[in-house]
């Protein structure tokens, strides 16, 4: 076992990745998804010597037969399995030291996971000043929705057909006769 690396930092990184994305996680066990995320975020996966498939195989190898998670001890064993693959040409002890250094003090990266897109199409579709026809009637001049009044045709009980030009002139015509 490598003594010169700071084991508390390694354990801290293990805990942070173990609880990532799971509100019920205690930080004592890590699932396969978080193990893969740790390997990706800490750049253990380089795409050439270590791939995501290698990471999954090592996870399956170190965990107990029926278990779906690995403990901290199994996590260290998994890192030791990947070390010679990741750092070819180095001694086993040096490779283990280097792989521990990759993981130490790291935490899950959340930057850029989900971004709000402000594409031109979205702006164009949500700009109420460009609406035409019946959709235009649903918003006032400021772009605020009119609510139910903008969605439904409110019936006026005047006795005239809607859009009749001479509405309201009957009484005047009746007086003329």
From TrEMBL:
It holds the Pfam family p25-alpha. It is found in: Cytoplasm, Cytoskeleton. GO terms for molecular function: tubulin binding. GO terms for cellular component: microtubule. Signal peptide: none annotated. The keyword Zinc does not apply. SUPFAM superfamilies: EF-hand. Residues 130-155 are annotated as: Disordered. Gene3D superfamilies: EF-hand (1.10.238.10). Residues 134-154 have a biased composition (Basic and acidic residues). Belongs to the TPPP family. This is Tubulin polymerization-promoting protein family member 3. The gene is TPPP3.
């Amino acid at each position: 076992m490598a003594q010169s690396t700071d084991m508390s930092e390694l354990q801290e990184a293990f805990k942070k990745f173990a609880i990532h994305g799971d509100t019920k996680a205690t930080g004592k066990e890590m699932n396969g998804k978080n193990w893969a995320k740790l390997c990706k975020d800490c750049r253990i996966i380089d795409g050439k010597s270590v791939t995501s498939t290698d990471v999954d195989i090592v996870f399956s190898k170190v965990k107990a037969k029926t278990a779906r998670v690995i403990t901290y001890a199994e996590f260290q064993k998994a890192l030791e399995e990947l070390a010679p693959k990741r750092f070819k040409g180095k001694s086993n002890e040096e490779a283990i030291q280097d792989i521990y250094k990759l993981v130490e003090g790291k935490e899950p990266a959340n930057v850029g996971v989900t971004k709000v897109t402000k594409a031109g199409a979205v702006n164009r579709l949500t700009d109420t000043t460009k609406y035409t026809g019946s959709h235009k009637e649903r918003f006032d001049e400021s772009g605020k929705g009119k609510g139910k009044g903008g969605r439904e045709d409110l019936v006026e009980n005047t006795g005239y057909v809607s859009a009749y030009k001479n509405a309201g002139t009957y009484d005047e015509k009746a007086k003329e006769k």
